[in-house]
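Retro notes, structure queue

What went well: the backlog is down to a handful. What didn't: a couple of records were mislabeled last round, so from now on we paste the full input next to the output in the thread. Example, using DUF2125 domain-containing protein from Paracoccus solventivorans:
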Amino acid sequence: MFLRTATSTLAVLALTVPAFGDVSPAEVWQNWIEYYQANGYNVTEGTREEAGDTLILRDVAITYAAPGDELDLRFVAPEISLLATGDGRVRTTLADTIPMSVRFAEDGEDVTLTGALTLRDSEIVTSGSAEDMTHDSRMGEVSLALQTMQTGATTRDLPVTLTIANLTSRQNVTRTDAMRFDVEMAAERLNLEADLADLDDAGTGDDGSEGSEGPTRVKLSGVVNDLRGASTGVMPLDADPGTDMAAALRAGLDVSGSLAAGAGRFELDVAGTDVEGQPENVAGHYTVEGTDVSFGFGADGLKYQGAIDSTAAEFTVTGLPAPISYSMAETTFDVQMPVLKSDEPAPFKLAYSIGGLSLADGIWDMFDPQKVLPRDPASLDIDVTGLMRLTMDLFDPALARAAEAAGDDAAGSDGMDATGDDAATPNPFEPTEISLNKIALSAVGASFDSSGELRVPESGDMTQPVGTLNARIEGVNGLIDRLVQLGVLNSDEVAGYRMMLAMFARPAPEGGDALVSEFEFREGGEIFANGQQVK
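Corresponding output:
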């Protein structure tokens, strides 16, 4: 729920830039309303004052209500002024402060957040015609500040502020049989500040009795530099993605975009007391050299890809003898999947990689002070592609309701449904082919690398795939010896572990500390390892 709320709030923030223009202020305003409505929002005016080349609107409410009363967003602009410049353009300015509220349900209780959107040195200039318009905007500073959080009858301060400095954008919008847009945005800097005090948390004492941890204070600050973004899309005029996303996708909704950022740094300080009244503290920082993310969303499917360059973190924790410190050279991810029900299989992809993961010597020394294990950087590489069918639209409200009902049944019956079986969670995914392009792990002087192809048999039983997997393990015998030296493994157990390895792997042809395996999955659920049946 928190993620949905945060995402929707940021969407409203992005839409604060008026999106249309024409030769008259009234036409600009009307197109602005239509743009918001195409995104599932409602726009209502308090009062309207029109004189000559100027249109002034007061107490304008921009609202969004999610289906099922799960989420309600509300921004109220005290004043919006649209002025024809005399050269075919329209200049739009907004009130410096725009109050906002967010209401959602959490654990059966209504939660309401209040705050304000603050603009400084802002201006939007629109040119073109009703069918083809370009909007140039600049904002010296945009700040979204939360102020309070009300849960039931309790209200507490919630000082969280997100500020963007020197934001500029250019947006081109055309309107024919559908609404099409192209947007480019840039900002000098993004700052985040949060100071949350008196966060109480119940706990359990060492003797098992219920206790209460003392008030906790969380301070978070961060800065990200050099933000750049772009997006393009098609929005059907006769579909509402807020109430029926699947119908909007079938009607032609298609959006793609990218977001890149430069170096960033975040600092965290959490202070409080445990159930025994002793002070507890977690403090540290996280840095990143750069981030690049792209997305695509349409009838062809969902794509979410990105890369994060050179991250590092260091935290001190009460009770630990050394800081928790690590760094990663690069992290990448690539998720692609279908979103609409279809009898024909569609491609999917799941890829994730971590390169150059290094732990600080202080962490190693906690369990390996003699430096028995190699401390070379670790890596992880997962790359899986294939074909799958969707038995339901991924955004079908019935799927969400069924998943929620299954979760409620599991929570109320210790994971069992009314028949005594495990509570069922709907699964619309039916893979038909799976390619394990690469699953690899390298750490502590050993490495594992595998690949292969699997498919669903004629019987359609996905639990008994058919295909072949190949694997290679290097350095495992040396790792076993080192674990014995560390005392993690008992020397009497080593023979058993090596016998188990021999059942599923054979020495590599070139010799050395390397093993290879070939697993064959046959019709009927039979499994062979290096030609020997193991199931």
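Agreed that this is the format going forward. Reviewer comment attached to the example: The longest strand covers residues 178-204.
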